[in-house]
Structure formats: structure tokens, C-alpha cells
Amino acid sequence: MNNSRILINNLKILQGVNHNIVNIALILFGTLLLTISAKVQVPFWPVPMTMQTFVVFLIGSTYGVRLSFLTLCAYLLEGAIGLPVFATGGGITYLMGPTAGYLYGMTIAVAVISYFANKGYSISYMKSFISIVLGSIIIFAFGVLYLGSIIGYNKASWIISIYT
């Protein structure tokens, strides 16, 4: 049995299969989950509340650092080329709009959560909680800072009070 702390590496069904094929399949599965979670939303202005953050936590806790980072990069690339993977559509202009900071923050946060999972932080609830809180801080820091640069920091700080 593989002694890796990354959950995806311990699945017996994936052992013996070409590593590249498994990684591509996992990236596509991750982007599919992110797309579905983007559509589950509570509409707010200018940034809807979605289930994407939960899926980022899930991917970060189960995939390795490189695989999770590549999954989020593939998701952003899918959206950039125009696929409707984001909460309200897709396209390159979406990556410069009010939600862009949150999307970029998710990309950094998933790598940080994966790093901590690889260090054993996914073994206990308390350690998982620490890595997920850190991921949340990263997502909201990127999101609110970028959103504030677009709509003003007074309005962006109001967004924080909605989510907390």
C-alpha cells in the first residue's frame, strides 16, 4: 500500500493505471466539480456566493499540490477560452471582473491546502480545520483586495460582513 498522505494516491482502483491518464482524468473531474459548484449559488451583487470554495477545500485536501494547482489552472483556462464554467458564464473578461480575485485566490489556496495535506494536516479534524481556515483567508484576501480595487474598499468590506 502507498504510504502517501495524499488521499488520491491511496485509492487502489487507480494503482497500476498510467499516471498521466489518471492525472488528466482527475483534472477533468475537478474542473467538472468546480463548474457544477459554481452554478449552485446565492445571488449577491457583485459577487455571488457559490459552493466553489467547498470544492476547492475538497480538491486541496485530496489531490497533491501540483495536481490541485493544475486543476484550478485548467478551470481558469476553460473559462478564459469561453466555456461557461464560472457562476455567470465564461470568457477572458470574466477573469478581470469583480470575481477575478476570488478565482485567483482559490488557485493559491488550493495549493496551500494541498501542501498542508501533504504534511499530514488532513489526518485530524483540527489540523484540517487549520488548513481550511488558512485557505479561506487566502481566498477572501485576494477576492476583497481585487474587488475593492474595482468597486471601492468601503463597498468591498461590506461583502466580508455578508460572508461571515
Describe, in short, the structure shown.
With 164 residues, the protein is mainly α. The chain contains six helices and two strands; from the N terminus they run H-E-E-H-H-H-H-H.
Could you characterize what this model shows?
This protein has 164 residues and is mainly α. It has a single domain (7-163), classed as Arp2/3 complex 21 kDa subunit ARPC3 (Orthogonal Bundle), CATH 1.10.1760.20. It contains 6 helices and 2 strands; from the N terminus they run αββααααα. The protein has helices at 19-39, 52-62, 65-80, 100-121, 125-151, 153-163, and strands at residues 41-42, 49-50. Strands 1-2 form a two-stranded antiparallel sheet. Strand 1 (41-42) and strand 2 form a beta hairpin. The longest helix is centred in the last third of the chain and has 27 residues, at 125-151. The radius of gyration is 16 Å and the shape is globular. The mean pLDDT is 86.
